[in-house]
Amino acid sequence: MNKTFHMEYPVPKNGTYTLKAAVTAKSDTHYVILCESRRWLFEGDLQSGETREHSFTVNVCDTHMFGDPYTHRTSLTVEAMGDVSLECSVSPCTAPTIYIAGDSTVTDQPAEYPYNAASTYCGWGQMFPLYLTEGIAVSNHAQSGSTTAEFMQSNWLVVRERIKPGDFLVVEFGHNDQKVKELAAFDGYIKNLRYYAEAAADLGAKIIFCSPINRIIFEPDGKLKNLLGEYRSAVKTAAEECKAVFVDLWKRSTEYMEAAGPEDAWDYFWSDGKSRDYTHTNDIGGKVIAKFVAQELLAANVLPIASHIKADEIQTPLPKPSGKKNTAENINDYRSVGLVNIPDLADIDKDIRNI
Question: What pLDDT band is residue 343 in, cutting at 50, 70 and 90?
């Protein structure tokens, strides 16, 4: 599936907007509507000549990624994949915004075209709008390679100037903090989590803490190695201290990928058919993690987010292994592709900061 539509719509200032899009199929097609940095808004099918109208609530916001210059945003980017044409309009609106702080497992990742879902990196934050109805927006400021400390020095400076009473701050870090001595789980890391909670409260926003998703490095018995459990515990502790919502993505991702098994788990993580990734989901896995977030916020009745979640689209039944291999009998095969090898912590995550 190729990218077939790209347009920039000027906007007067940062804020929330209503995006109306009329999609017409040039042939029978599967299509996706995206905004900003490949943030998914809708996915569906149309028959040739059929037109469907959509209305979304989106956010346009300046960015200041760590290590990069401040970027002013003066337009809304709209894109589409599929054999379609679009007619769009953009108008200001008032709506709460979900601001997201995080690392590569959360950020808006780019894609190459022709599009391949398996070999496209994806942070769950860019899939989350797919499961929201009109009336609430997402502003994803997560960055590949970021720690709680680095984010505080740049990305956060934009968010704190934009976030307002009634908005939300979703925080998920850990993969990179783990590699920095000063950011040990119950040292610098939890101190920074407390800072974000206090700052959000001072600004009238509600904070949501997410534990980091697990890496898919398996033990010989088919269980995932516990490489981020201490960071998960720190997030849970911070959430309890701050009386914040806690979304346990470490637990949810561990349960799901262990159910899939050592071979099939990689259906959800980046692979180009030759090399694989322990840490970063592809578009398939990004959708699954985004659904976990939606499920947890719906179960906790976090309003008004819960009232905008598409409850009928977020089911995630545990996968059943395809039975291609038996872990115990094929342990040497798994070692050959890195399933049970642990590289040095400094090299455990593929560097995708500049993809």
Answer: low
- Residue 316 CA to residue 149 CA, distance in Å, equals 33
In this structure, are strands 206-210 and 245-247 parallel, antiparallel, or unpaired?
A: parallel
Q: How many CB atoms within 10 Å of residue 7?
A: 14
Length of the chain in terms of residues written: 355
Note the pLDDT tens digit of each residue in 80-104.
999 999 999 999 999 999 999 999 9
312-to-132, 133, 152 alpha-carbon distances in Å = 11, 12, 36
Query: Residue 332, class by beta-carbon neighbours within 10 Å (0-12 exposed, 13-18 middle, 19+ buried)?
Result: exposed
d(C-alpha 269, C-alpha 250), whole Å: 15
| Euclidean distance between CA atoms 155 and 325, whole angstroms | 44
Are 172 and 102 in contact by the 8 Å Cβ rule? The answer is yes
What pLDDT score was predicted for residue 35?
Answer: 97
What are the helix and strand counts (H, E) for the chain? 8, 14
Q: Which two tokens stand for residue 170?
A: 């979703």
Alpha-carbon gap, residue 66 to 60, rounded angstroms? 19
Residue 253 is predicted with a pLDDT of: 98
d(CA 25, CA 39): 21
Q: What are phi and psi of 170, to 5 degrees?
A: -100, 130
Mean pLDDT calculated for residue range 257-274: 88
Would you state the structure tokens that stand for residue 134, as one six-digit string?
A: 């009109």
256, containing H or E segment: helix 249-264
Q: What is the pLDDT of residues 111-123, one digit of tens each?
A: 988 899 999 999 9
Angle made by CA atoms 83, 274, 346, in degrees to the nearest 5: 110
DSSP letter, residue 253: H
Mean pLDDT of 35-48: 97
pLDDT greater than 90 at residue 139: yes
